[in-house]
Design goal:
Elements lengths: L1 E2 L5 E2 L4 E6 L15 E7 L8 H11 L8 E6 L5 H20 L12 H19 L9
Antiparallel strand pairs: 1-2, 3-4, 4-5
């Protein structure tokens, strides 16, 4: 079990790692060694996720979520498999941890009457300025 919060842990049976060739730094070694990690986390697996956390996790995952219900995380920043592996796992844990936070509901506020009146006064003042512009007429 991989701990995420005090009450939530990910089951290791839901994780699948694949090592692939990485682009980026590494010189000639990059063509020979598969150091990049593709970590897949199955949402429909053994890990018990509360329904609201699961919904937020699906929304946060975005394009990383496949049609089969897997979250795919690719890590290829480092030159070693081990560091890329721990980086991918850390990203997954961070993603699940962010999904556990319930967003604070927005409280609708009312605009005070004085603020509305001030806005309308400013509009009428501007209207007067503009209406007094125009042609000068001769009243002979």
């Amino acid at each position: 079990m991989i701990p995420v919060t005090a009450s939530l842990a990910l089951d290791e049976r839901d994780l699948e790692e694949r090592f692939i060739r990485a682009s980026g730094p590494g010189g000639q070694n990059v063509n020979k060694v598969s150091t990049a990690v593709e970590l897949r986390f199955n949402l429909n697996g053994h890990t018990e996720l509360p329904e609201d956390v699961r919904a937020r996790l699906e929304r946060l995952a975005g394009r990383r979520l496949t049609l089969e219900g897997e979250i795919v995380i690719r890590a290829d920043e480092h030159r070693t498999q081990d560091r890329n592996r721990s980086e991918a796992l850390a990203r997954l844990v961070d993603l699940v941890e962010r999904a556990t936070h319930r967003p604070k509901p927005r409280v609708k506020t009312k605009v005070p009457r004085a603020v509305k009146q001030k806005r309308l006064d400013g509009k009428s003042r501007r209207s007067d300025v503009k209406s007094k512009r125009g042609r000068v007429r001769d009243h002979d």
